[in-house]
């Protein structure tokens, strides 16, 4: 059976990322879906080191960051649900991204395959000139994979949502965009 790794970068348990994950799971009938909340993983922040990840092994190698990236080798599709807070992806996104260096230094040949499997849904209000999409696109700069069809930004204000507590997935147009983006 085909496998999906569905990952939320939200610190909230019942927010838009959680509701969207529930929706995606309900539509992924031909997949085995493993839901992961980055907030529940034990990921040590980068600090108090001498850049061992660049030449040896990260001193925090045994936390969940390396294990998470290793687990992506076993799935057919990776879906990241990333909320935007204060004009940027959540701090959990940056924490995992920062700690990914140890994994990619030892698995560089897997990077294009990883990006081919990765689909990012960004959720939040985007101000004019906001670099939210560009932050995700930068992951694709060192690859042969085009970011165009791998990133979907859902701007909550376009759907009449004014509060972070409003449900984005309750909107039929959002469901249709997600279905098309993920081919559900």
UniProtKB/TrEMBL annotation:
<dbReference type="GO" id="GO:0016491">
    <property type="term" value="F:oxidoreductase activity"/>
</dbReference>
<dbReference type="InterPro" id="IPR005025">
    <property type="entry name" value="FMN_Rdtase-like_dom"/>
</dbReference>
<dbReference type="InterPro" id="IPR029039">
    <property type="entry name" value="Flavoprotein-like_sf"/>
</dbReference>
<keyword id="KW-0285">Flavoprotein</keyword>
<protein>
    <submittedName>
        <fullName>NADPH-dependent FMN reductase</fullName>
    </submittedName>
</protein>
<keyword id="KW-0288">FMN</keyword>
<feature type="domain" description="NADPH-dependent FMN reductase-like">
    <location>
        <begin position="3"/>
        <end position="93"/>
    </location>
</feature>
<dbReference type="Pfam" id="PF03358">
    <property type="entry name" value="FMN_red"/>
</dbReference>
<dbReference type="InterPro" id="IPR051796">
    <property type="entry name" value="ISF_SsuE-like"/>
</dbReference>
């Amino acid at each position: 059976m085909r496998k999906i790794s569905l990952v939320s970068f939200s610190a909230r348990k019942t927010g838009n990322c959680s509701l969207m994950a529930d929706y995606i799971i309900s539509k992924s009938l031909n997949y085995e879906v493993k839901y992961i909340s980055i907030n529940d993983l034990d990921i040590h922040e980068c600090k108090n080191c001498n850049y061992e990840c660049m030449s040896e092994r990260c001193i925090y190698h045994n936390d969940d960051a390396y294990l998470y990236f290793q687990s992506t080798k076993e799935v057919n599709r990776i879906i990241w649900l990333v909320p935007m807070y204060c004009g940027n992806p959540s701090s959990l996104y940056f924490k995992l991204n920062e700690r990914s260096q140890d994994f990619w230094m030892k698995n560089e040949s897997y990077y294009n395959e990883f990006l081919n499997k990765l689909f990012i849904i960004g959720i939040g209000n985007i101000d004019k000139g906001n670099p939210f999409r560009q932050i995700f696109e930068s992951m694709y700069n060192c690859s042969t994979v085009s970011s165009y069809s791998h990133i979907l930004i859902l701007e909550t204000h376009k759907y009449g949502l004014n509060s972070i507590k409003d449900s984005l997935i309750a909107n039929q147009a959002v469901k249709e965009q997600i279905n098309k983006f993920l081919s559900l």
